[in-house]
Task: structure prediction
Amino acid sequence: MPNPDHADSENLKDAIEAILPALEKFNRFEGEDASAREKEWKAALKEDLPEKGVGLEEVLGILTDTVIPNGLRNGMPGFSGWVTTAPTSSAAAAGLAGMVAGTQRFWVQAFNTLELVAVEWLKELLGIPKEWQGTFNSGGSVANLIGIAAGRQYAFERIGIDVAQDGLPPDTRWRLYASEEIHHVVHRAAAILGLGRSSLAHIPVDNEYRIDLKALEDALKADKKAGVIPVAVIATAGTVNTGTIDPIEEMADLADEYETWLHVDGAYGGFGILDERVAPLYKGIERAGSIAVDPHKWMAIPIGCGSTFVRDRALMGRTFNLGEAEYLEGSVVEGEAHSTFDNFGELFHHFNIEQSSPSRGARVWAVLKEIGKEGMRERVARHNSFARSLAELAKMDDRLELLSEPVLSICCFRYRAPEMKDEELNDLNIAIAARLRAEGQYVPSTTVVNEQLAIRPCYINPHTTQAEVDGLAQRVREIGDEMTAEG
Ligand SMILES: *Cc1c(COP(=O)(O)O)cnc(C)c1O
Result:
């Protein structure tokens, strides 16, 4: 019997099976990408809201013919742009499973338990102490916001103010401290938390792009003298420009000395600790107050999966507790549950900014169960090796130049021509990157290091092989040669 509103909720298997061939085909990344047909699909999709629906079958047909083939190809082997990739199969399957069978992360049900299991497994994997409270959230933007919010709570409780309850005090000045290489979502977190973007002190970096410890200490000292409240020192473990890891241990020392919170943004690079060649650079991470890590990056979990870990569970609770609500708590039964709905199971909504939330833990659990610690270690080491091998290729080629020595899986390099100045080289490398995107086989992104335009692959994509690494170096050389010969 169809619903009176005509929505089908009985033919899920048919619906999913109907779109699977299109998804399979999409995952082979053949032919041109979506931009080639932009006019067509935009015209087809930007319709008026229909008064009468067309029914399930036609919706599935549009998904198959128009939407999926014109989706985003950031999982193709040659894609190495920004810090993003497409999900691996087990994570996508678990995502679908959760969307259907784990529609909330709370209550007494298997997805609620996997939320906890995955948080615990991630802590163990990343060297985060067992006692810390962890929670999944939507990604690095919120993961950092949650960590910094906990730091804000800590900073003001120290002077007798409960910010979560009473808000920020008037006639008070405060500051956040991070390097110039900090990710821009941290500025927004400061804005949303009422601290203000201007409260972020931009500490200069040394010649390896790590925060300058002397400058950080000077800033903390001067502010202390001036009565400015230090809200948090923020270290980045894997900057998005170069993959640099700030000196965490020394920053922990300074945070201790100035009695402030240390937050570590490891959204991209938190997993780098799995590569024993760079693991020592994470020394001191267990001394932080909070750590943000994005499973939707290096773990290739479907987008919408960040995580935050906070040392002080009670403090995190004071920051994020939802408070009582008859509407929610009314049905909670103490002791053994006789119904899924007898209690909320493992609690996460008092440590987060979301009440309703997708079950993200199942997606993380699926990948860790599938490939284990060993698989993640192998992936991270393999990707870091890709960046190192590209750096070697750049050093060996007289027309390529390495712009920053890789620490993790990012390699910043450029094409160079001996007679060209930096400004011309910047334009040339912008043009080379644009050509690469148009060709579509190798798609890195770009950044600027030391005022020099860098071609910047970041290897987190499980599909990438050494062939795409070598191919990128070769293609940059070829395009550069061609463009300079023309000029
Ligand atoms: C990706 C990233 C962010 C932002 O995370 P989103 O998941 O894109 O919101 C913040 N910091 C660092 C270091 C990142 O790599």
